[in-house]
Write a structure and sequence with these properties.
The chain is an alpha/beta fold. Helices cover 31% and strands 21% of the residues. The chain has 11 helices and 12 strands. The strands form 2 sheets. The protein has a 10-stranded mixed β-sheet with strand order 3-1-2-5-4-8-9-10-11-12, with helices on both faces. It has a two-stranded antiparallel sheet with strand order 6-7. Strand 8, helix 5 and strand 9 form a beta-alpha-beta unit.
């Protein structure tokens, strides 16, 4: 599997700090709604922490929620929060000076901290980050969804994110790497409980929201229309969550890693609408698309496969938007600055069709601008 994602910091392969000081802010979404956001630390007291083997503790995750707001608050929430902690962690992970990472802390988004929510029902979308990623890695798509009338929530999968930071400032580093060359038995002994832990995080998020009747946003959540999407290992998490949790009604997958999905799910498929948007090939990892194609053939609802030529794994997050230089170094040859925005339009369109019943040609932004193979049934 291609190791993912230190989104913005991937650009830091550049040898001159001066070349990366001009980062683009997040694009302004096209939807009509103001975006509000808030953060919580949640504990699942009924679930032991799988990642910590030497002590008994329960699963704790930080989450961020975005929602349509009636008015702006006094402050935008930063794209990179807790910059001192994140910069240190990312600097160590990529073995680069902190000065290379620091410009990322200046990127601005469009989400207003604790803005007043609109008292109207909106579908709920849960986002799952990739292995070594984090909850805001696909903020362009998240903000596009919310501006078009969705509530989105994303956890940092603790021990599985690049760094997990709680509201009191304590942090937990990434602890999910497997050495190269592990046996099949060793692979499944780690990846199977890991993906099940992540899937349980998704269900726990829904469970927790359903109990928060005193929280203002609660009355705006349409629990009858829930979607899930994710990137890479988060894509796999989305599929497993859709298999396990019947409350989920639509599933979208961004260059997802299908290898750690068990054969029972691959050979049965899921019964809800599914969309896969990814690169043309995973290179030598032919098993990934072999399993995807088998999964596609076994699904029993509307299913889309869009494979875009000249793209790379990390292009299916925010990365292509931020820097021309970074894109030249890390992106596929056919990826331009508009790529992340165009993907976000298709994400909104897919969920519009299957959670709102609004049907339009949402694949156009991709197939009209990039050489794309598409399968649909």
């Amino acid at each position: 599997m291609k190791k993912l994602l230190l989104l913005i910091p991937t650009m830091l392969l550049i040898n001159s700090c001066a070349l990366i000081l001009n980062f683009n802010d997040l694009p302004t979404p096209k939807g009509n709604y103001i975006i509000g956001t808030n953060l919580f630390d949640w504990e699942d007291k009924f679930r032991d922490e799988w990642f910590t083997k030497d002590k008994i503790d329960t699963r704790k995750i930080p989450v961020q929620i975005w929602y349509p707001a009636s008015e702006k608050s006094d402050s935008l929430y930063p794209y990179m929060d807790y910059p001192n902690i994140r910069i240190n962690s990312i600097s160590e992970a990529i073995d680069k000076p902190k000065g290379f990472v620091k410009p990322a802390s200046d990127v601005e988004g469009n989400s207003y901290y604790k803005a007043k929510p609109i008292n109207k029902k909106f579908p709920l979308i849960i986002f799952s980050h990739g292995l070594g990623g984090y909850k805001t890695q696909n903020s362009i798509a998240i903000e596009a969804l919310v501006s078009n009338g969705y509530i989105v929530i994303a956890p940092d999968h603790t021990y599985d994110a690049n760094v997990t930071i709680f509201n009191d400032g304590t942090s937990i580093d990434f602890d999910s790497e497997l050495p190269p060359g592990v046996s099949e038995k060793e692979f499944w002994s780690v990846r199977l409980p890991q993906i099940n832990t992540r899937s349980s995080d998704i269900s726990f998020v829904i469970d927790k929201l359903q109990t928060m009747k005193d929280y203002e946003v609660y009355s705006s959540i349409d629990f009858n229309n829930i979607g899930v999407f994710g990137h890479s290992f988060g894509g796999a998490t989305s599929v497993v969550s859709s298999w396990n949790d019947t409350r989920i009604s639509a599933c979208l997958n961004l260059d997802g890693w299908f290898v750690p999905i068990v054969d029972e799910i691959i050979n049965t498929g899921i019964k809800i609408p599914f969309c896969y948007i990814g690169q043309e090939s995973w290179g030598k990892d032919t098993l990934n698309y072999d399993k995807l194609d088998k999964f596609y053939s076994n699904c029993s609802s509307d299913i889309y496969l869009l494979k875009i030529k000249g793209t790379e794994h990390n292009d299916f997050a925010d990365l292509p938007h931020f820097s021309n230089i970074g894109r030249m170094i890390t992106s596929g040859k056919n990826v331009d600055k508009e790529f992340a925005k165009r993907i976000s339009y298709s994400i909104v369109g897919f969920f519009d069709e299957y959670l709102k019943g609004t049907n339009y040609n949402w694949t156009e932004e991709i197939i009209n601008n990039y050489e794309t193979s598409i399968k649909f049934k």
